[in-house]
Design brief:
CATH class: Alpha Beta
Structural class: alpha/beta
Number of helices: 13
Shape: globular
Order of helices and strands: HEHHHEHHEHEHEHHEHHEEEH
Distance between the termini: 109 Å
Radius of gyration: 26 Å
């Protein structure tokens, strides 16, 4: 009888322990579900910056790419938002202040690159990514020392001191994969560069474990599984425009660089953060070159499509502009199927279909409005 009571008591304890175990197991599964599904963190984060990209740029770009019914990869992004990016002292930011707002989330005065009013550094998203053990990358078709790019890895006192910005890139060691133009700021004048201090920054990068590539073929030859540190310097200045076929033959496109960057960065177990700067859009707009402005915007759109294909569903892709440039507008009445260079023509009244608020054809659009 006593043994029976002991057995019954033991069974009660066993049942209670099993119930407790099941409760803890379900609680653990709930925590895992919450962490990995409810607040799941993206493995890859890619920030595209279209310099000069604004809502007014998209309409002519769609028409340029595919006529009135044309669609861009940008049009299929899951969310859309409008941002205001004025600087601390001007309604329209310059390149430095606009980039700083995107890189740090802080409004600064024009000409300030990731520094506050006291000249102290402001932490950038690249620096936060490194603190969280993410690999970091920077891709641009402009100079890697431009203010837009420098805001993510540097804190220069003068945005025009590009030699110091290049030195800060090397000395800071914040970027694992970098590709773009502006090689002249990384080489001394004795080796075809523009540095006057004699430093060969490409040699220093090589000694720091970076693979240095100078052509598209060399870039494609880097095996993805090696997880290397890579520095691609494909031009002494900005890369050539997409429609400059001969000059661009040895240079990778923006899409090529984005694809290779993702392939190399994704082997980091902690994830990655990649900045993609479409800087030739700015250069073309500043020249009031309508065709190149639109073709470079199409290049950005293609790069976004490549990123969405290669980064996968576990990644977050954000595309934003920094500030509008030139006031490009699609006016007149182009035919429905007109695309490409057909948009560069004139209507029956001799007025251009593409106009700028300033520069060539600007006054003609003012006259048409009267």
């Amino acid at each position: 009888m006593q043994r029976m009571r002991a057995y019954i008591g033991l069974m009660k304890w066993r049942n209670q322990l099993l119930a407790l175990f099941c409760l803890l197991a379900f609680a653990g599964l709930g925590v895992l579900y919450f962490q990995h599904w409810v607040i799941r963190k993206p493995f890859g984060i890619i920030l595209f910056i279209g310099e000069g990209l604004a809502p007014g740029r998209l309409a002519p770009t769609r028409t340029y790419a595919g006529g009135a019914g044309g669609r861009l990869s940008l049009d299929s992004m899951s969310h859309l938002a409008l941002l205001t990016n004025y600087s601390k002292d001007f309604a329209a930011p310059d390149q430095a202040a606009a980039a700083t707002a995107l890189a740090t989330g802080v409004r600064v005065t024009n000409r300030a690159v990731a520094i506050n009013g006291d000249g102290k550094p402001i932490t950038s998203i690249v620096e936060l990514a490194r603190e969280n053990r993410r690999a970091t990358g920077l891709v641009t078709d402009a100079k890697m020392t431009d203010a837009t790019n420098a805001a993510f890895y540097g804190h220069p006192a003068d945005p025009n001191d590009i030699d110091s910005i290049a030195a800060e890139f090397v000395d800071g060691g914040k970027i694992d994969i970098a590709m773009g133009g502006g090689a002249a700021q990384f080489l001394p004048s004795s080796k075809g560069g523009e540095r006057q201090d004699g430093r060969d920054l490409l040699l220093e990068l090589r000694r720091n474990g970076f693979d240095i590539v100078r052509t598209r073929a060399e870039l494609e030859a880097i095996p993805a599984w090696r997880r290397p540190k890579l520095f691609g310097a494909f031009s002494n200045v900005e890369l050539a425009f997409a429609n400059q076929v001969e000059e661009r033959s040895q240079q990778p496109s923006l899409s090529d660089m984005v694809r290779r960057a993702i392939e190399l960065l994704q082997y980091n177990a902690g994830g990655y953060f990649l900045v993609v700067d479409a800087g030739l859009m700015r250069k073309a707009a500043e020249e009031n070159n309508g065709e190149r402005t639109l073709s470079e915007t199409v290049e950005l759109d293609r790069a976004v499509a490549v990123a969405r294909r290669y980064a996968g569903q576990r990644s977050t892709i954000v595309v934003c502009g920094d500030a509008a440039i030139g006031g490009l507008s699609l006016n007149g009445f182009p035919f429905r199927k007109d695309s490409g260079i057909a948009l560069l023509g004139l209507n029956s009244a001799g007025q251009p279909w593409l106009t700028w608020a300033t520069g060539p054809n600007g006054t003609r659009s003012y006259g048409a409005a009267k």
